[in-house]
Every structure is written in C-alpha cells, then in structure tokens.
Amino acid sequence: MSILVVDDSPVNRRVLEATLRVEGFREILGASSAEEAFKLLGVGPSQRPVYDVEVILMDVVMPGIDGFEACRRIKSTSHLADIPIIIVTAMSETESIEKAFDAGASDYLTRPISRVELHARLRMALAVRREQESRKARERELLAVTQQLEIANRKLTELTRTDGLTGVANRRHFDETIEVECRRLRRATHALSAPTWLSLLMIDVDHFKAFNDAYGHPRGDVCLQMVATAIRHALLRPADLVARYGGEEFAVILPDTPPDGALNVAERIRAAVQHLGIVHERNTAAPVVTVSVGAASSPTPEGADLLASADAALYEAKRGGRNRVHVATCANRPVA
Amino acid sequence: MYFTFTVSAVRGDPPTLDSQTLRSLRELGGDSPDALIAELFGLFCSTLDSQLQALDKAISSVSMDGVAAAAHAIKGSAASIGALEVASICAQMESAARAGVGKDLPADLMRLQGATARLLGRMAEIKSESKGAGS
Q1: Both A179 and A312 in a single domain?
Q2: What angle do helix axes A10-22 and A115-160 make, rounded to 10 degrees?
Q3: Do A126 and A212 belong together in one domain?
C-alpha cells in the first residue's frame, strides 16, 4: 500500500511525508504536479500505472492542472475510480470544499494539518477502500459461482434431453420438439398463403436383434452410436433433429420440408448407414448394417397422426425387403 | 481570516518563525529533529529566490494571475515551516491579486523582502543553536 502526496511545494511534501511516517505509514510517494501524478497512476491514453496507490493526498492550487481537475481525471479513469482522494487545502471556505466533493474527492483536510486529523481521515479512507475491495471480491466470487451454476444447469438440461448412449436427442426431447413444431406449423399455415410441410422419418436398424445375438451387446452399442452419427451427419440444417426413439429405432424431425425433400434426406441417411460398412452377416438385405426408413409429411400435422403415418411407412419399408425408404401416402393434402 | 491558526499564536504581528510550528516539526523528526528542520529550511530556501523573482516579475508585468500563483506558492511553503510573517504578507498579496487590486503590491513586495531577510536570519540562528546544543 502506498500513499501518494501531490503538492507543488517540496516543503509541504516533506512535511506531509514526515507526518505520515510518524503516524506509521511507510510507503509514501510524492508528485510535484498533477501531470507527474498522472504518470505514476497511469492516467491518460495508453498509460500504465507505475505504482499501486491506495490513497491520494491532493493539493489544490498548483501550476498547470489544479487539484480539482486532477481529482476529476483520476476519478474518471476506470482502474483508479476507487482510490480515495483527500483534498488538502489552505482555504477553509465552504466553496472549495464543495468543489472538492464535486470533483469526486472523498474527504478534505485544511492546512496546517494536524497529525491526529490526518491519521483519522486516512484510516477512514483506507477502511472504506478496503471494504469496497472486499465487497467487489465477494461480487466477483458470486458472479463466478453463478456462472458455474448456469453452466451446470445447461449441462443438466442438455443431459435430460440427450440419449446417454448415442449423444443424440432422447425420446423426451423428441416428444417436446414434435409438439412444438406441429403447433408452430399450424400457426404458420394460418398466416401464410403458401403451404409449408413438416416431415418425420422413422428409422429402424435392420435385424438388430440378430446383430446383438451374433456380435454381442457391446458391439451392438457401438453400432448404434455409429448409426446415430451417420444420421446426424446426413442432416444439413440446424433445425433438423435426430432422436433415439426406442432401442434400435431413431426418429428425425424435418421442419419446413415437403415430401420430396423428406425422401431425399431419408435416402441420404439409408445410403450413409450402408456406407459405414459394419459387417452384419445375418442381415437379409445386405452383408452390412442397414436401416429401413418410413417417411411421412403433412402441412397440417398432429404429432400422433404423423407418427402413426411414419410408423406405417416404416412397416412398409420392412415388408418391402428392408434397406429401403418408404414414403407414406399423405392423408392431409395442402389446402392451397 | 486566512490563517486561523495565528489566533493560537500571538495577537498582533505574526512571528517570523512560529515556535509552536517548530515544536511540531521537531516531533516529526523522530530521533534527529534538527536534521528535519535543517532539511525543511534548505528546501524552503532553495526555491525562495526563484519564487521571489517570479513574484517581482509578475508585479512589474501587472499579471494578477502570476502574482496570485507565486504568492500562493510561497505562502504554502512558508506556513508549513512556521514562517508566519512571510506567509501572512503573501496571503495579503494573493487575495489582493485575486481581487484584482494591484496598487499595494509593490509596497507589499518590499515588506516581503524585509520579512524574508528576517526569516533567513532566524533560520541561521536556529541552525547555530542546534549545532551548539549538539556539541
């Protein structure tokens, strides 16, 4: 901790320094002008503080910048704003005291300076400063804890929405999202003249039970992870959502996607999974792991209807020989 | 009105060197009170000549701001070492200059020169006293 004495008179600086020393203050800096003080404190563009100053004793009448203006400039420098400044004045008129407080001074002393008074004012200024600093430290701590909590909350929310094995959305997140998308589309359809579509894909890994029986559950798990990743990479828009719907069943929500678009995405997913080349000798459709995809689209969807249509389409794809896409015939034609 | 503390000293003319102030300064000097006094006198004298010249110049060029600034500077240092006579004259000069009244300034300067001469004499006495006491 140092105390900075700003006074143009070397005699006054020396007297103040001696007084401060007698009162037990050890680190005392002197500046003969406001400009010199600015250099020590780091006031002004691209200046860095040279010393860590805890309190400033400031003379008023000085050649160049006076004590009031110096006080204002120091107080408007962000890293110095908390340093208490005690204005030291020979004039005891209320006008100059008012000016001192207007300039941001925290206290004042009149010359000749009494040792007792100096000591009391300094102790008070330092106590206020330290209280401010500890309060700021507590605020910083609180902020850090709050931020950690927010991160933890986000992670927790993410966890409650994520499938633990594959990292894609879980069934709960899917259920919420399909409802939100259906509502959103119903609102949009009322508002827009051009029809928009919501599409849903149901995806099932072909003969997955046989895969688990042949290669074991650990490899089954890895297979599901790879399939999930392949599906995720086949989706190109941020709004598209892939979820693990059941054991080896995945669902993809495609907002603003007409039937032909849904067919494209479905076909891309089917091809991507096959391209993984995971050996599956008990698959009747191919010697590698494949998926069957049922696609359904609607411009005025109800979540349950869309799911039923996509499920029916998936059943058709399975029945048709697996490793293929089947598009549901749409019950709800666009009204436009 | 500028030196409320002169009330606690003697009534009438302020002293050349105030003994009360000197005692306080000695207390600040700790183990070597005379050394601090000598140092402060030295600091005062080292700037006095140039300050008096600045004052003289300001008076002859009728710069009231200059007079106020120079008188204020001498006043502050003088008051700190207890040179109350010098401080008092400077206070008068400063307030006259701030009020824009310059007619008495040349006479004030003469008085100030007399007072500083007395002050330097007192300082020399005190120095030799402290040396005498020390030996």
Answers
A1: yes
A2: 70
A3: no
Bridge pairing between strands A53-59 and A2-6: parallel
Q: What is the ipTM of this complex?
A: 0.85
Contact partners, residue A90, CB within 8 Å, separation at least 6: A60, A61, A110, A111, B2, B75, B76, B79
Q: What is the pTM of this model?
A: 0.61
**Residues of chain A found within 8 Å of residue B40, distances taken between Cβ atoms:** 11, 14-15
Are A319 and A193 in the same domain?
A: yes
Burial of A59 (0-12, 13-18, 19+ CB in 10 A): buried
A95 is catalytic: no
Residues of the domain holding A233 = 171-327
| Of the candidates A234, A233, A240, the residue with the CA atom closest to the CA atom of residue A266 | A234
Taken in order of first residue, the domains within chain B and their CATH numbers are 14-129 (1.20.120.160)
Q: What does the pLDDT look like over A155-209, one tens digit per residue?
A: 998 889 999 999 999 999 999 999 999 888 888 766 665 668 899 999 999 999 9
Alpha-carbon separation of residue A16 from A164, A295, B74 (angstroms): 70, 87, 17
CATH number of the domain that residue A232 is part of: 3.30.70.270
Whether A15 and B21 lie within 8 Å, measured CB to CB: no
Q: Are residues A323 and A178 in the same domain?
A: yes
Give Dmax over CA atoms of chain B in angstroms: 52
Question: Can you read off the two tokens belonging to residue A138?
Answer: 């507590």
Q: Nearest C-alpha of chain A: how many angstroms from B43?
A: 6
